[in-house]
Amino acid sequence: MVNLSDFFLSKNRKSDAGRKRSKTLVPPSPIPISTGLQRKSSLFKMTQDVEMKEVPAPSIPSNSASSTSPSTLHNLKEIASLLETAAYSREVRRIVRAVRLTMVLRRKLKVSVLSAFLNFALSPGSEVHSRLSSYLPKDDEHDMDVDTATSATQVSSKHALPELEIYSYLLVLIFLIDQKKYNEAKACASASIARIKNLNRRTIDVLASRLYFYYSLSYELTDDLAEIRGNLLNLHRIATLRHDELGQETLLNLLLRNYLHYNLYDQAEKLRSKAPRFEAHSNQQFCRYLFYLGKIRTIQLEYTDAKESLLQAARKAPIAALGFRIQCNKWAIIVRLLLGEIPERTVFMQKGMEKALRPYFELTNAVRIGDLELFRNIAEKFANIFNSDRTHNLIVRLRHNVIRTGLRNISISYSRISLVDVAKKLRLDSPNPVADAESIVAKAIRDGAIDATLDHTNGWMVSKETGDIYSTNEPQAAFDTRIAFCLNLHNDAVRALRFPPNSHKEKESAEKRRERQQQEQELAKHIAEEDDDEF
Fold first, then answer.
1. What is the pLDDT of residues 35-71, one digit of tens each?
2. 111: which of 58, 317, 334, 378 lies 20 to 30 Å off by Cα?
3. 129-139: b (≥16 Cβ within 10 Å) or e
4. Entry's SMART domains (predicted)?
């Protein structure tokens, strides 16, 4: 009798042996190495083609074997390809990226690089190529940043895109301004503005806004801003008609700067009040607008609005814009002093601003003490700085605040003091100091700055004794103000919960309309059935 377990075990051994024999007798057919490499290369090529189609501006390594980083010309060519992709796909964000990358390469631009790029981007011998090449100096042949491999394979397009043409103008203009060749920069900027007027493409708006800025800067550096004011107004009108909001924003700031440069504050306010308002597209332009608005409000004695605009401009400004933030803080300090406030010490100790704000720190100290003589000495000591900052006229206004602060300290210290001593302590430098002191004290009493009375017979200033403030109605008024604020806040919160903002302006979609009509029909049917039952 055969054991079943032994039978199955011997059968499995035979099958395993046959399987081993089949493996040894029939080896797998080897794949040629060349065929595998061809398949791999074809697959890599297909993948590369797909990536080339998806990515508009690929990063191609430099042809120079010795250099580890791409050359400046190579980076400019990548930016040109990015501009071409943006022009065909009409994506403005790629134009913004191209301008940002150009600012990184700004310090590396040379004549040889610009000449090679103009040969690459524009048709050699064309009018634009000849004009831009004429602006470049000819005595910089030793600075060769162009490798021979890339220069030998340049391919110039027969019909250059308008975006590439305007970008070439921008590149040459930036280089001329950095090289302090202001006359050539003015000529280049004027030619670029004349070309932009004939182009109405949304992909050029970003490049045009940068050209507007450098156009105004080139004339400002030669102190000829008045010459382009009419042209800037014309450009602002064109940008408004084309609905170029970024151009309107930039040109409005340039016009405000133009007016404020010549102290034409009334014209600047008229332009600002009548210019179209829209949501800001550039944080830098919005910061500039707030700064110019704060300066206009300061001159117009609207110190509260000016303080808000200047502080907001300083907060929104980029950290790298140190000079702009310093100017905002200087004007904000003066405005706060004119409002009767004393800025905190931390304002003057901000990183990188200690030296620039030192004159304003000493000025603030003089106003806080109320010493008119110290205030006069500081104003004379830093007169050149105040004149360059255009805050000298505002500092003249501070004289009245210094006198009022000193008078308040005197009224607290003395219950009764003669007007002669008041004039001496205030250090009034007028021909009749007693009469001036009397008028100053009378005005301070009328304004409520001090709580005192004038004794004209004896020539005294009698201060009233400071009583218990809780015996007056001032705590009740302050408490009532806080209660009213809390109640208004509560009512606004309840109203916002009950009525969502702009709920009446929301358009009803087709699906919601269909659901609402269906619910209304079901409700009407249900009401009709109930009426039938009752009948």
1. 443 443 443 343 344 333 333 444 444 343 333 356 8
2. 58
3. bebbbebbeee
4. PAM, PINT
Assigned token pair, 271: 């332009």
Q: Are the C-beta atoms of 130 and 162 separated by less than 8 Å? A: no
Binning the chain into helix, strand and coil, the percentages to the nearest 5 are 70, 0, 25
Classified as helix, coil or strand, 525 is: helix
> What are the strands, taking DSSP E only, across 386-459?
416-418, 452-455
16 pLDDT more than 60: no
Whether 251 contacts 236, CB under 8 Å? yes
Dihedral angle over CA of 100, 103, 108, 114, nearest 10: 80
Q: Which domain holds residue 179?
A: 71-222
In a domain, 447, yes or no: yes
The 3-state DSSP class for residue 463 equals strand
Q: Is residue 168 within 8 Å of 122, Cβ to Cβ?
A: yes
| DSSP character string of 279-317 | --S-HHHHHHHHHHHHHHHHHTT-HHHHHHHHHHHHHHS
Between CA 461 and CA 393 the distance in angstroms is 32
The count of structural domains within the chain is 2
Backbone angles phi, psi at 364, to 5 degrees: -65, -40
Q: What count of residues does the chain have?
A: 535
pLDDT tens for each residue of 153-204: 344 444 568 888 888 888 888 888 888 888 888 888 888 888 888 888 888 8
Residue type at 127 in one-letter notation = E
Kindly report the pTM of this predicted structure.
Answer: 0.69
> For residue 232, which amino acid is it?
L
Q: Which residue has the tokens 């409000």?
A: 297
Q: CB within 8 A of 73, min separation 6: which ones?
A: 113, 116, 117, 120, 145, 146, 147, 150, 151
212 domain-assigned: yes
CA distance 182 to 190: 12
